[in-house]
Sequence to fold (311 residues):
Amino acid sequence: MYGWQLMEQAAELERLGEPFALATVVWRQGPSSSQLGARAIITMSGDVRGWIGGACAEPSVIRQAQQVIADGEPRLLLLGTTDQFGGAIPEGMTVVPIACQSEGALEVYIEPVLPAPHLVVVGRSPMAHTLAELARALGWRAERLDWTDFSAAAVSEVSMVVVATQGHGDEESLEQAVAAQPAYVGLVGSRKRGTAVLGYLAERGVPQDQLDRVKVPAGLDLGKTAHTEIAVSILAELVQMRASGQIATAGVSAPATVAEAVDPVCGMTVATIGANRPLTHEGVTYYFCGAGCRHHFESDPASYARNETRC
Fold:
């Protein structure tokens, strides 16, 4: 998969709201199976679409890409032995030692592509329409639904929900919204109205911890304002809360950590899985990046066993 095919795949993943990382080879030292400008999409599950290197580089890039998705921060990798570069390694670069028989090296830039913030506005007032339009102008995925069409299934734990039904299904909409436990739930209305709605839901048995998460009234306090300004105040509050980390609307959890070990022959970090050729010597199990390293170990285990370290 190359060129526009890869970009089309990236666009489709973004449309579906699936987080991924885009890895690009920005420098190579031959011999290497990768080429300058080679690209790959890497998902959180470790699925690779495209090409960024062979058996030595790919596992390391996948692990780093998964962390980039979880952190939401790009990073530049240097894959190779540091003695190839002396003291010329730029500050901020992540060095990932690999020692393949080809003796090649790569620099790979990995950038996260996270889903756009998801906002659901419940209601059909002019303010509800304006809020959805403003959010779309920021590049957010914004939906406006009538309260009769809204349900907990319309949102996820990273969605933001603003109930702006203004007396038309406030209780029903808010009950559905809190049940989904989204990143943010706000009710447009006065504090008095909010107290009445929340009290009604409490009497219906809605858990108090869910009700405590409802922001009433939604938006920054700007005093008496027009409906367009109320929409601006709500959007400003959401932007502020996202920027400060009070709500996480692009939350992506890193996969469960797989135990790792250092190949005692080449020093490369590898996962402790069956595919990495485990070999037990004097009660200790070793793992290897390739068949060549395992062969070297088998030929003289005493020379390499003392180099083994766990990660």
Notes: The chain has a mean pLDDT of 86. The longest strand covers residues 20-29. Residues 227-244 form the longest helix (18 residues). The chain has three domains: 13-113, 118-244, 260-305.
